[in-house]
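It is worth pausing here to work through a concrete case rather than discussing structure prediction in the abstract. The textbook approach is simple: state the sequence, then state the predicted structure, then interpret. We follow exactly that order.
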Amino acid sequence: MAAIESNPKISLHARSNSFPNAPHPLVSQFEEHLNRLKSSESASSSSSLSHKLSGLQDLHESSEKLLQLSTTRQALAQDCTQKCVDELLDGSLRLLDICSTAKDCLVQSKKSVYEVQSAIRRRGAEVALTVGAANYLASRKNVKKEIQKASGNLKGIRNQFTVSSEAKENGILSMLKEAKAVTVSTLESLLYFVSDPKGQSKQSRWSEISKLMKPKRVACDSQEMVTSEFEKVDSALKSLISQKHASTDNFQGDLENLETCIQDLEIGVECLSRKFIRNRVSLLNIFNN
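Step two, the predicted structure:
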């Protein structure tokens, strides 16, 4: 790595006026991860969300490596205005807050699933299961309120990561903003998936997400959308409470699938949060020196 950095013919990126034209190998790796995320389908299922979160981890790990290069650190320290510094640091902190909210909501959702599963296993009385279902749905309301607040926070930072003509003059700054824009879009998809699975099929919401992600055509017809794990359990328990049916056999499998879904998303968000922390520490080290 030191040999690469000491070579004056190797630059961080061709878009930066401060460097020659040959891009650094880490830049190519970064852009490969970024383009893969931008060109992939919008995250409308738990499996696609898990894939997106994994892709974000790779992207931000690549970003972290770039931030360790002396050429990167020098370029950011010299070229970033105070406004740019404030936006980068504030944005990184807000993304951590969003991850924290998502983790808390997933943990709360998993706890509610356990309570319903426990009520089913006891089979002491139909009342016990009904109470478990009511508690689950009450918890879902709380989760949706928290996610609604977090969604507003995401909308507030979206403009910070819009790549302007000024940013394009600085290769590393432009790259960081593009990475954050894709990250915001994916986190928004995650929040919608957990809080409002049916709402994901609405054109108005997906149109906002697609502006950043530039995905392939997304099917907006609700009949074409895959019913999410959250939606299946929500519907089943609402039906149980309204006494449309009292059988638990039909949705025990759905509960297990939801538990697995939540665990996978929880792991993905936790890993991504650690990447955010490392990136923020690197930025603080650059701007505080």
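Step three, interpretation. The radius of gyration is 22 Å. Residues 2-288 form one domain.
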